[in-house]
Amino acid sequence: MSGRGRWAAITAAVILMCAAGCRHEQPATIMVITPTGGLEYWEKFDHAVRTNAAAAGIHIELAAPQSVTDYTEQAQMVENAVAQHVQGIIVSPAHQLVLTSVLQKAVRAHIPVVIVGTPIALSDKDFAAFIGWDEAEAGRLAARRFVALLGGRGEVGVVGVSPTVEGSSLIEKAFADEIARAPRVKLVGVKYGLSDWARGNQAVLDLLSEHPDIKGIFTTDEFSTHAAAYAFEQREKKRPLLIGVSDELNEIAGVRSGRTDALVLSDPHELGTRAIQAMKVALAGGDARSFSTQLPVTIVDAQTIDQSPMVAAVLKNSD
């Protein structure tokens, strides 16, 4: 080989090595897709994801549909992430079935997927890890508290998100099953607010109108919890008991003031932290299944809220 040929070969090799090194130094890009935006819960989750990802040298891109019932929009976001060849996907599915086909595309593209929040209808081998919160226990805790507060007698109702939203449905079923164990407490109605304040408010008013003797209402998301508290404030006569699922700061304050009788909450910061821990292992080619878990939930009232470690964690991570 001539001198000029050798130098050309060396130069080409150096360029290839530099290109490989530059690619190696670029941080992995992870797409994080939550069920909806505009909620403190998912804002806190996103904050935990960003903080932990930055410490791990991972680049995060965030996406969320406007409503938790926008299943096709969330599926399209997953589809777009696969098309962009991101290195990983963290997703909280709004619907158990709608995302299955697009997530299988991620599997075929060898993109690790960490499922958070709510389970999905995929085989365990099709995702890196599942990190959720115990939605069934949320329903059971609320039902037991109603039974205790009502002295084992009375009518109760539920305002959920949608019968097709898996997380809300899990909560509702566990609540109904637990209420059925108390023979003199009756579940008289289930309405849906579709994660919309105005619809949630109307759902509460409909329950009150259709069941004038109702003694308690259980709300399974932040929108309906806030809507019920507002609807009750407008009533001149004694309001029904209200137990909600929410970690919104306004609803925590409502427990202290007596606007809400009890609140079921989980820790979104812990959910986000664990999601990144699992993804970091998956990106390194490791087995992230050991990170799969269901995080605990708790129920608090005016007497216990200031002693609750979970409330303290939620307030700390809201600063």
UniProtKB/TrEMBL annotation:
It is found in: Cell envelope. It comes from the Bacteria. InterPro entries: Peripla_BP_I (IPR028082), SBP_2_dom (IPR025997). GO terms for cellular component: cell envelope. Keywords: Signal. The keyword Signal applies. This is Substrate-binding domain-containing protein. It comes from Occallatibacter riparius.
